[in-house]
């Protein structure tokens, strides 16, 4: 028996030694929106050609909340079927203990990325995910319609509401019955946290949990911001906006049925694609500021990263794959194909990108001033914080309780969650 | 005497032998996870490391905290408004959906029990909604109920029944209605099938006697049909009721995160996987299990009492 084992071990060793740089099968999960998955496939095809490895994409639902639950479960089960996870910018502190530390392997490339993004993916000195694109939302507007009615670009949220109403009413009179003034993401999910953080922040209402850990959300300016948003639902925004995620709002927008839309940059190239009814009729600008003390234009920082599972059977090949997808060449490809914002600073001065996707260089400032969600403050309890926040906002928008009451309740919930310290 | 008892012993042994594989499988796929979930509910386990949890007793269910200031705080599932809201949603959903499904199922079954050409085809066609996987039907209805592109709003608008497009799955007032519509659409065929099976078993002679005696059709269905199919009807209602109490997939797909429709299972999943509260979610799952177990026992007991009296 012993002899047999020894023979077997010898045979295995011989096979291993004999094969040159063994090709491996990797799998990557991604829940990208729009044609993000198609572009990812293109990028992976190029990687397969270069490395000889095979990469399978496992598509996921587009809701980040759904993705997170599944990933958490797979990681808890020490699942080795998934090698690379596409992770949201807010997940790093929650998943850090189950992801490979990329610090040493990416020493040569991290300097090219924006330091703030690298910082957001660093937990206790460990870089747990490498950014592949960043996200900061834009205000999409219909150039043709604003020109038609002589309306200016809105300089504040209240101007936006007034303009939206004006154009919407006039268009409806002209027979365009299905048009609405403004669409955003009002469903109860992570996206509503992003949208509402922008309303609150732009109105000088703080960022839910401040960097020092204090719960700041219960203040009159935040309440005013939510009351303002409540006023949109059913007037300039369809009542159904309370169930919209990114793709539903884009559906209304891209069929030409909205004057304004709040969405991420991916909607730009889709709106400009062949066969789009609004091709050449729209442009983007920054989200407007609110009013009151500390009012400013605010955009929630989004963005996606690639992380290697601790339970992957091929960590080296996976890290190599992550570095490939995050490389300047591939980020440029992604920017050109799908107007995704690169995380490499130099690409904002790239001539090809400036020519093909003029929107991207204009985006650098927006995203440099973007507001992060309080994921680094709330750490493992971020999801609960976000859930409590979007629930309070969703309740306010659907008319259950006033903004002030809901925020007072939220403060109690968050303070209780925080306990002695986050 | 001696020989007979040896035969008995042999038979018992054989019975256990034949039962063993099934018992082992049941223990592995149902018993072990169940015990583990109950165990987790008494710890502070987090999903990040399942083995690191410490025993904390009943704190996930109920705990009393005395503040230094003298204030007393209550914590845990039993005082969590979100939990009670989920319980209320679930119970309301179960009662309304099972009632509607029973009534509609009965009507469909009575129609299908009648003799008419093409009956076999219609019987098969009626089952289609039930055969479609819930995820698929939920997604399909989500599109049909979409406020802007949905066909339901379009039809209602053209008929003049509504003035403006309704956001079915979004607003608090209609989200539960939307869930109920889809569930009733989907599960009525199941009820109809069970009731139809009971109807087909009824002896024809009773009806002939009733006809000869000149009993009105209404009295026949009320005094003859209904009592005769009652046992089968009870079984169907109990099965559906237990099934409805653990509703998850339909609500999760159709109206995710909506506080108006969040059921106990959805609440448990949220705590288990989304929040860093694996133990708390385990406690919610354990309570759901307890509720279902108690209800089942109650129903079985009810059935036995009735059985003793009737026969």
Automatic annotation (TrEMBL), chain A:
Protein name: Family 1 extracellular solute-binding protein
Record bears the keyword Cell membrane: no
Main location: periplasm
Source species of the chain: Mesorhizobium amorphae CCNWGS0123
Compartments where found: Periplasm
Signal peptide: 1-23
InterPro entries tied to this protein: Bact_solute-bd_prot1, SBP
One GO location term (cellular component): periplasmic space
Record family assignment: Belongs to the bacterial solute-binding protein 1 family.
Keyword Amino-acid biosynthesis on entry: no
Alphabetically ordered keywords of this record: Periplasm, Signal, Transport
UniProtKB/TrEMBL annotation, chain B:
Membrane topology: Multi-pass membrane protein
Residues annotated as transmembrane: 12-35, 86-114, 120-138, 150-168, 174-199, 278-302
CDD domains: TM_PBP2
Protein name from the UniProt record: Binding-protein-dependent transport systems inner membrane component
Keyword field contains Repeat: no
Cell location: Cell membrane
Domain ABC transmembrane type-1, first and last residues per copy: 87-299
Main location: membrane
Record GO cellular component, one term: plasma membrane
Organism from which the protein derives: Mesorhizobium amorphae CCNWGS0123
Family stated for the protein in its record: Belongs to the binding-protein-dependent transport system permease family.
Keywords annotated in UniProt: Cell membrane, Membrane, Transmembrane, Transmembrane helix, Transport
GO terms of biological process kind: transmembrane transport
């Amino acid at each position: 028996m012993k002899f047999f084992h020894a023979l077997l071990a010898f045979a295995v060793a011989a096979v291993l030694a004999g094969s040159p740089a063994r090709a491996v099968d990797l799998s990557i999960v991604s829940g990208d929106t729009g044609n993000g998955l198609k572009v990812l496939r293109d990028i992976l095809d190029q990687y397969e050609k270069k490395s000889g490895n095979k990469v399978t994409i496992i598509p996921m639902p587009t809701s980040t909340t759904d993705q997170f639950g599944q990933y958490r479960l797979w990681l808890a089960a020490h699942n080795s079927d998934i090698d690379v996870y596409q992770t949201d910018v807010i997940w790093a502190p929650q998943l850090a203990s189950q992801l490979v530390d990329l610090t040493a392997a990416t020493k040569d490339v991290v300097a090219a990325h924006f330091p703030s993004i690298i910082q957001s993916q660093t937990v206790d000195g460990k870089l747990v995910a490498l950014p592949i694109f960043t996200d900061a939302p834009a205000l999409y507007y219909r150039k043709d319609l604003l020109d038609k009615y002589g309306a200016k670009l809105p300089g504040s949220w209240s101007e936006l509401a007034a303009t939206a109403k004006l154009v919407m009413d006039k268009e409806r009179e002209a027979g365009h019955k299905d048009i609405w003034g403004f669409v955003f993401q009002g469903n109860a999910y992570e996206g509503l946290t992003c949208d509402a953080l922008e309303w609150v922040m732009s109105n000088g209402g703080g960022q839910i949990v401040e960097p020092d850990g204090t719960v700041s959300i219960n203040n009159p300016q935040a309440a005013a911001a939510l009351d303002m948003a409540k006023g949109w639902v059913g007037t300039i925004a369809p009542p159904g906006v309370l169930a919209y995620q990114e793709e539903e709002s884009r559906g209304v927008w891209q069929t030409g049925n909205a004057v304004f839309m709040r969405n991420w940059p991916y909607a730009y190239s889709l709106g400009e694609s062949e066969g789009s009814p609004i091709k050449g009729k729209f442009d983007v600008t920054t989200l407007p500021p609110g009013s009151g003390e500390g009012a400013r234009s605010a955009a929630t920082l989004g963005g996606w990263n690639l992380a290697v599972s601790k339970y992957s059977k091929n960590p080296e090949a996976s890290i190599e794959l992550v570095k490939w997808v995050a490389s300047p060449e591939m980020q440029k490809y992604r920017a050109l194909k799908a107007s995704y914002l690169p995380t490499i600073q130099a690409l904002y001065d790239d001539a090809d990108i400036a020519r093909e996707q003029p929107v991207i260089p204009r985006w650098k400032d927006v995203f440099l001033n973007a507001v992060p969600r309080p994921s680094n403050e709330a750490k493992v309890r971020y999801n609960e914080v976000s859930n409590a926040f979007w629930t309070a906002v969703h309740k306010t928008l659907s008319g259950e309780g006033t903004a002030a009451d809901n925020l007072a309740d939220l403060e109690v919930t968050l303070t209780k969650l925080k306990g002695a310290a986050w | 005497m001696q020989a007979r008892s040896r035969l008995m012993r042999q038979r018992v042994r054989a019975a256990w032998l034949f039962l063993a594989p099934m018992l082992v499988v049941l223990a592995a796929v149902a018993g072990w996870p169940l015990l583990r979930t109950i165990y987790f509910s008494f710890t502070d386990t987090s999903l990040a490391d399942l083995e690191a949890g410490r025993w904390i007793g009943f704190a996930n269910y109920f705990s009393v905290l005395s503040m230094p200031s003298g204030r007393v705080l209550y914590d845990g599932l039993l005082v969590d408004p979100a939990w009670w809201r989920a319980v209320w949603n679930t119970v309301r959903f179960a009662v309304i959906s099972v009632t509607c499904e029973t009534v509609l199922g009965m009507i469909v079954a009575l129609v299908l029990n009648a003799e008419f050409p093409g009956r076999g085809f219609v019987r098969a066609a009626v089952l289609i909604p039930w055969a479609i996987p819930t995820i698929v039907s939920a997604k399909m209805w989500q599109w049909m109920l979409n406020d802007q592109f949905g066909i339901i709003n379009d039809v209602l608008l053209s008929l003049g029944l509504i003035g403006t497009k309704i956001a079915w799955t979004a607003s608090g007032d209609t989200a539960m209605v939307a869930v109920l519509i889809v569930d009733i659409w989907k599960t009525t065929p199941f009820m109809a099938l069970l009731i139809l099976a009971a109807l087909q078993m009824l002896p024809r002679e009773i009806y002939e006697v009733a006809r000869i005696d000149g009993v009105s059709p209404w009295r026949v269905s009320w005094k003859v049909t209904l009592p005769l199919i009652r046992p089968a009807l009870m079984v169907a209602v109990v099965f559906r009721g237990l099934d409805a109490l653990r509703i998850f997939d339909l609500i999760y797909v159709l109206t995710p995160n909506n506080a108006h429709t969040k059921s106990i299972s959805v609440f448990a999943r949220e705590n288990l996987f989304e929040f860093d509260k694996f133990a708390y979610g385990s406690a919610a799952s354990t309570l759901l299990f307890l509720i279902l177990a108690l209800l089942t026992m109650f129903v079985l007991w009810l059935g036995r009492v009735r059985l003793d009296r009737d026969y």
